[in-house]
Specification:
The complex is a heterotrimer.
Chain A lengths: L3 H5 L7 H21 L6 H22 L5 H9 L19 H22 L7 H27 L3 H19 L7 H8 L5 H19 L16 H9 L10
Helix pairs in contact in A: 2-3, 3-6, 5-6, 5-7, 5-9
Chain B lengths: L3 H4 L15 H20 L1 H5 L8 H29 L3 H10 L16 H21 L5 H29 L3 H21 L10 H6 L7 H18 L10 E3 L4 E3 L5 H10 L2 H16 L1 H4 L3
Helix pairs in contact in B: 2-4, 4-7, 6-7, 6-8, 6-10
Chain C lengths: L4 E8 L7 E8 L2 H13 L6 E6 L26 H6 L4
Antiparallel strand pairs in C: 1-2, 1-3
Classes of the chains: A mainly alpha, B mainly alpha, C alpha+beta.
């Protein structure tokens, strides 16, 4: 493993920044879902949220595993400086309120699904195979959040208004999180046709606009809200015990 | 004096909620299963405070899976209670969040260090397995059925606990000292968890007579000691009880008695720690009440 | 009025097996019950298919177990089919 600065300056063709980005997204989402599972709206929902969180942590492990051994992956999670995390803005949010979790996860899963369809064609070693491996779990995640977006929005006008306010906050973060920092470099490293990721983003955005419209909801563009990034708080929590005896757990 | 079994013979075979159930059987079943249910719903609050802080990915996954199972157990037992008493989910939640703190003694103590949930998973889930294995034959059908899934999962929790404690014992002197502190703290609480001997147990004999409960507290405690005393020592830990000894002829362990006055005061009157668990859960539920609350 | 409804959950372990009742979940509607049932009843156990059925749609029999007593000797209603077959043309 190289220090963070070297990762940041990785040359074109280097897969590591892209894999780190994907893995960090999964790790933080796994952290959020397994953590909020104690505090969600109903026991049945909590069971399912925890399951999905465990899937995501497992996916993060497999993604780190494409470029790091188990010990290195552990240090990436528990010791890496916050500045070296590549997760998108959406994955850095840590809400407990159902409408915000719902908006976060719905947008996260639909984006992951749209991206996975592109990544399944990657020629870079291991990526397409891993996407195929994760596809079954992701299919369920997508169904879960789609179902609950519909069920929640149909609850009442007040419930739909809540969901709309949550989407107003989460959509700009999701829109800013779909692509990696340098999409072109990522496409070349993954062995994807130029522009494949940007095209997927456009298609995802328009498909989700329509899907939301059918539920009486809308996705309004706007600047990402300040203070949404809660990575620092998440890492403090995650490392609370670890740091009392680093490297020996 | 007639025993409950003489007053009301144990119903033949297993009892199902749609049958005519004698009032005192229903009352006894309700008391016992509600206690178990509330333990599985309120207790995991302790664990959920630690899930985000698990110090390795392996521990994080184990702990998430374990706490998730506990939520599932709470859910299944809550369903059993709803069908037994006819109360709705909403009515039960009010009782759980705002009602009297009727849950296991172990949740009334603070879990302040990482070692606490790990010790509980190892020793106390191991103790729960002893009890629950007998409940597979409980006379209340829906409870016995729920126990099948619950018991299988508790086995996994016990192995998680043992793994996590093993990791700490291999970690260094500080971690080993923390584990020993944990055993010192949890030893008597674990023995107490089985409840007092039958002659001192208020409800035990009636529950046995109804076939709701299948084994005496003391027999379960003895069986646990036989399994765990060697396990704890093999881990390189000391048991904080000078009078612990096995009488091979009688096949019984002698041990220092837990503080039974403290035990019954926790079970009847609760504790600040227990009240805090209920408060945390209540606060969390209120945030999302709008979603599923009754119209 | 209760917003949550009780859904009975049936799980098929492997193709060829019957769906068997495994318990219940509470949810506002059937699709929500389905995504909840999957993780509660099929995350550790073998499963290839699930059904969820609103409890309100289940009609339970009202007969005492004796009414179902099919094992009881009921010579008076035997059709004699087995004997008729063995006595038939070879």
């Amino acid at each position: 493993m190289r220090p963070a600065s070297a990762v940041a300056e990785a040359a074109d063709g280097d897969l590591e920044p892209t894999l780190t980005w994907l893995a960090d997204d999964e790790l933080l989402t796994g952290h959020v879902l397994t953590s909020v599972a104690g505090w969600g709206p109903e026991l049945e929902i909590n069971v399912a949220m925890s399951s999905m969180g465990q899937d995501e942590i497992g996916h993060a492990r497999r993604l780190y595993g494409l470029f790091a051994d188990a010990g290195q992956a552990e240090r990436l999670v528990y010791e890496r400086p916050a500045a070296a995390f590549r997760a998108g803005l959406l994955a850095r949010t840590y809400p407990r309120e159902w409408e915000l979790l719902l908006a976060r996860q719905y947008l996260f899963e639909t984006a992951a699904d749209a991206r996975a369809a592109v990544l399944a064609r990657a020629t870079a070693a291991g990526v397409a195979a891993l996407m195929a491996e994760m596809a079954h779990e992701e299919r369920y995640h997508l169904d879960f959040w789609r179902t609950w977006l519909a069920t929640t929005s149909r609850r009442s006008d007040a419930a739909r208004a809540r969901v709309q306010r949550a989407l107003d906050r989460m959509w700009p973060l999701a829109a800013a999180s779909f692509l990696p920092e340098r999409p072109g470099a990522a496409e070349r490293a993954l062995g994807l046709p130029e522009g494949a990721l940007s095209r997927a983003r456009r298609e995802w955005a328009s498909a989700e606009r329509e899907a939301c419209q059918r539920l009486g909801l809308s996705l309004c563009d706007g600047p990402p809200e300040a203070g949404a990034d809660q990575l620092g708080a998440m890492l403090d929590e995650m490392r609370d015990v670890y740091q009392t005896a680093p490297g020996s757990w | 004096m007639t025993t409950p079994a003489q007053q009301h013979p144990v119903p033949a075979g297993q009892v199902e909620p749609w049958q005519d159930i004698p009032d005192d059987y229903r009352a006894a079943a309700t008391r016992m299963i509600e206690f178990h249910m509330m333990s599985e719903i309120v207790g995991p609050v302790h664990e959920f405070r630690w899930v985000p802080r698990a110090p390795s990915l392996q521990a994080k996954l184990m702990f998430a899976a374990k706490s998730q199972d506990e939520v599932g157990h709470g859910l299944m037992l809550l369903r059993v209670c709803e069908d037994l008493t006819g109360k709705s989910r909403a009515q039960y939640l009010e009782q759980i969040l705002d009602g009297p703190p009727r849950f296991m003694n172990i949740f009334h103590y603070p879990w302040d260090e990482w070692v606490d949930p790990a010790i509980v998973a190892w020793l106390i889930d191991g103790a729960e397995i002893e009890r629950q294995a007998t409940l597979l034959r409980s006379s209340y059908g829906p409870y016995a059925r729920a126990m099948r899934k619950i018991l299988k999962e508790e086995g996994f929790h016990h192995h998680c606990g043992r793994y996590l404690i093993g990791r700490m014992m291999a970690g260094g002197p500080r971690q080993r000292a923390a584990v020993q502190r944990g055993v010192d703290r949890w030893w008597l609480r674990t023995l107490a968890m089985f409840g007092p001997r039958d002659e001192n147990s208020r409800h035990g004999p009636a529950l046995m007579a109804f076939g709701l409960k299948l084994a005496r507290n003391e027999d379960l405690r003895q069986s646990w000691l036989t399994k765990f005393v060697p396990q704890i020592r093999a881990m390189g830990l000391e048991i904080p009880d000078d009078s612990l000894a096995r009488d091979e002829e009688a096949g019984q362990w002698a041990y220092t008695e837990p503080d039974w006055a403290e035990f019954s005061s926790l079970l009847r009157g609760g504790s600040p720690v227990g009240a805090d668990l209920q408060r945390d859960l209540r606060t969390a539920r209120r945030v999302n009440d709008w979603l599923l609350a009754e119209d | 009025m209760a917003y949550l409804r009780i859904f009975e959950v049936f799980r098929q372990k492997a193709p060829g097996d019957a769906h068997q009742h495994v318990g219940e979940v509470e949810a506002p509607d059937a699709p929500a019950a389905m995504v909840l049932a999957k993780e509660h009843f099929a995350r550790r156990e073998a499963c290839c298919s699930l059904w969820v059925v609103d409890r309100a749609d289940v009609l339970a029999s009202h007969w005492a177990p004796e009414v179902f007593d099919a094992g009881r000797a009921k010579g008076y209603r035997r059709s004699g089919g087995a004997r008729a077959r063995s006595a038939g043309p070879a």
